Amino acid sequence: MAIAPLAAGGITCALIGMVGRGRPCRNPLTVGENLWATVERQQRHERTGRARYGVAMSVAQEAGRLIAAAAGPRLAPLGLVRSGRSRLWYADHQWWLTVVEFQPGRSPGTYLNVGAMWLWAGRDRWAFDEGARLRWRPDGSWASEPPIGERGWTEHVGFLNPDQFARDVAVVADIAAGQAAELRRQFPDIHAVASGLISRPARRDESPLWHAFHAGVAAALAGKTTIAEQNLARVAATNSSTGWEHALAAEASEIRDLVGDPAVLREHIARVVNDSRHRLNLPPVRLELGPRP
Asked: CA torsion, points 31, 37, 41, 42, in degrees to nearest 10?
C-alpha cells in the first residue's frame, strides 16, 4: 500500500508536538532548525533571567549600603552594633538585647523591626519578645499599632532610586534610634521588666504562652513569687501539641520549682542566659539578677 507523503513541515510538527494529529505547521521548519530555535529561545530566557537577577542583587546591595550609612551614625551612640554585614543591629544589656532589624521584603526596600529580646528563653537566633514591626507617618511619628482605620501610616520604604531611598531610610533610621532609646528608658532593670510584662495582656501578634513565660521569669527574678508561680504554672500545664510548646512547658515547670529558692533560681537563669549568649556569638557575662536589697 502506498503511503502518501506528509506535507512540508508535517514531520516537524509531528515529532515535536507543536500541533496535533501530524498536521503541517505554519511557517514550517526542518527538525534541526526547530530544535535550534528552541535552544536559542531558552538561552535568551536564561540571559534575561540572569540580567534581571543581577539588577535585583545590585539594587539590594545598594539598599543595604544606604541603610548602613543611615543607621550606623544614629544607632552607635545608643550602644548598638551591627551584626556582621547584615541589616541587624543590637545593644547588649547582659540578660537582654535591644534588636533593630531593617527587614528586606519581596521588593527592594525595607521594613523596620525594633524590640527587646530576653535571653532567659534559651535562644539560638535573634527574636523580638517585646515590640517588633513599626509603622510611621511622614512627620516622623511612629507606633507599633496605629489607630485602626487612621490613614497616613506606612511600614515599608521602597527603593525607586538611590537619592530617594537615602532620604527615606534616614527617617526610618531616626525612628529606629528613637524606639531603641525608648526601650532603654522602659526597661532599666528586672523590676521594670516584670512590672511591664505583668501589667499587660499578650499582644495580638504574640503567643500567650511566651508572654506568660517571660512575665513569670521576670516576676520570679524580681521577687514577685505569687505572680511568677501563676504565670509559670499556666505555661507548664499547657496541652503541648508542638515541640517548642513541650520544651517551653518543661522549662517553665523547672523554673517554677525554683521560685522558692532565689539563689538557685538566679544560678539557673544565669546558665540559660550565657548559653543563649554563646549561641548568638556573644561573650559570657557575670549576671547580677534578683530583687533589690
From this structure: 40
Task: Please write the tens of the pLDDT for every residue from 1-60.
Answer: 444 444 444 434 444 444 444 444 445 444 555 656 555 666 555 555 444 444 456 888
In sequence order, the 6+-apart residues with CB closer than 8 A to the CB of 217 are: 118, 120, 228, 232, 255, 269
Name the pTM for this structure. Answer: 0.79
> With the C-alpha atoms ordered 252, 258, 264, 265, is the resulting torsion angle positive or negative?
positive
- Do 89 and 71 contact (CB within 8 A), yes or no? yes
Question: What cell does 62 get?
Answer: 545598594
SS (H, E, C) 143-186: ECCCCCCCCCCECCEECCCHHHHHHHHHHHHHHHHHHHHHHHHH
Farthest CA pair distance, the chain: 110
Residues contacting 230, CB < 8 A, separation 6+: 216
